[in-house]
Design a protein that fits this description.
Strands 1, 3, 4, 29 and 30 form a 5-stranded antiparallel sheet that branches. Strands 19-20-22-21-23 form a 5-stranded mixed beta barrel. The radius of gyration is 22 Å and the shape is globular. The chain is mostly beta strands. 7% of the residues lie in helices and 50% in strands.
Length: 334
């Protein structure tokens, strides 16, 4: 039997290391999905897959919930497991399915709220984004800041963080924002939630990235993404110069300035208890959370990296097993 190995082209566009120069170069490699244990050791598929998949089967049995569907106009409603329409199509976006009796949905005007299985509002639609409840709290964006509300809509953690995993500065960090699908979310699991709590600036020049050092009162927002910056490289840092003449520009290095949000973890009092330099970070499951530092790895609740970042993709741990994608050196084998 032939094993299909997917050919993947990896272009490292952004790195979030806070110091040093990061090489950015296209790399062609083959990849395959494997299972690992909490020590990072590969577990044979025949042994691992039943353990891993049994978690999802149990979840499906425990949470037989309403599932999203679309009408011909692209509006979202919800059906039960028999296909009966329970909530008629009326929303512009929403969760894939209900969880613990609720789902987050978006209405006209791009405001999010939370409904129950009767379609009634549990949390009124007044937020730029709401994630569904997890451990009694729901992440909510107001004025581009993330906080957490309780089941009555009261702020338990005031809006203060730079963004939610899944949503940042008015944009969704996901390939499918309409369907409210995110690989990582700012939800509480095992008492902790990942949030964007800080930011750094990088300059990308000549296939490398450098920590940006800016003059005082530098108009950084005017130079992000689409405008070049000029400066000098020293000690693996890019020292940006301002108010320079065209003649002087010819003597300096030219790069592009990027803002990079940094993810860490907060407790239910809103304290940042793990100050990582991750982008992004996932929720905790069985004591470990997936994080990305160039590639995916895992940390424990003290923020210690217990499985080094070396995976192209990674899942949460379930029954002691996680699904990851690794690089491989061959295409097909008999």
């Amino acid at each position: 039997m032939k094993k299909l190995i997917v050919l993947t082209i990896l272009t490292l566009i952004l790195s979030i290391q806070t110091t040093g120069a990061d090489i950015i170069s296209p790399e062609i490699y083959y990849s395959k999905q494997v299972y690992i244990d909490k020590a990072g050791e590969i577990v044979p598929k025949k042994q691992a897959e039943p353990l891993y998949q049994s978690y999802f089967k149990q979840q499906a049995q425990n949470e037989r919930s309403l599932v999203r569907f679309y009408d011909n106009d692209g509006k979202i409603g919800y059906k039960d497991e028999k296909g009966n329409i329970i909530i008629k199509p009326q929303f512009l976006a929403g969760d894939l399915n209900f969880r613990n009796g609720t789902a987050a949905v978006r209405i006209k005007g791009n405001k999010w709220g939370i409904i129950n299985e009767k379609g009634n509002w549990v949390i009124l639609p007044k937020y730029d984004l709401v994630l569904n409840f997890s451990e009694g709290l729901a992440g909510a964006i107001q004025d581009n800041k993330l906080g957490f509300i309780d089941s009555k809509g009261n702020w338990v953690i005031q809006p203060q963080f730079l963004g939610a995993l899944c949503y940042t500065y008015g944009k969704y960090d996901t390939f499918n924002w309409k369907n409210h699908i995110c690989s990582e979310r700012s939800e509480f699991h095992e008492g902790l939630a990942p949030v964007y709590y800080d930011k750094i600036y990088k300059v990308y020049f000549d296939s490398n990235s450098y920590t940006a050092v800016m003059p005082e009162n530098y108009p950084v927002e005017q130079h992000l993404l689409d405008k070049a910056v000029f400066g000098e490289i020293k000690d693996n840092k890019f020292y940006i110069k301002s108010n320079i003449t065209d003649k002087k520009k010819q003597q300096l290095s030219k790069g592009n300035l990027y803002e990079i949000l940094i993810a860490g973890y907060i407790d239910k009092q809103g304290n940042v208890v793990i100050k990582g330099d991750f982008y992004p970070a996932g929720g905790f499951s069985e004591g470990l959370a997936k994080i990305k530092k160039g590639e995916y790895g895992y940390i424990d609740k003290k923020g210690k990296i217990v499985i080094p970042p070396k995976y192209i993709t990674a899942s949460d741990f379930h029954n002691g097993i996680a699904s990851v994608k690794i690089r491989d050196t061959y295409a097909e084998k008999n």
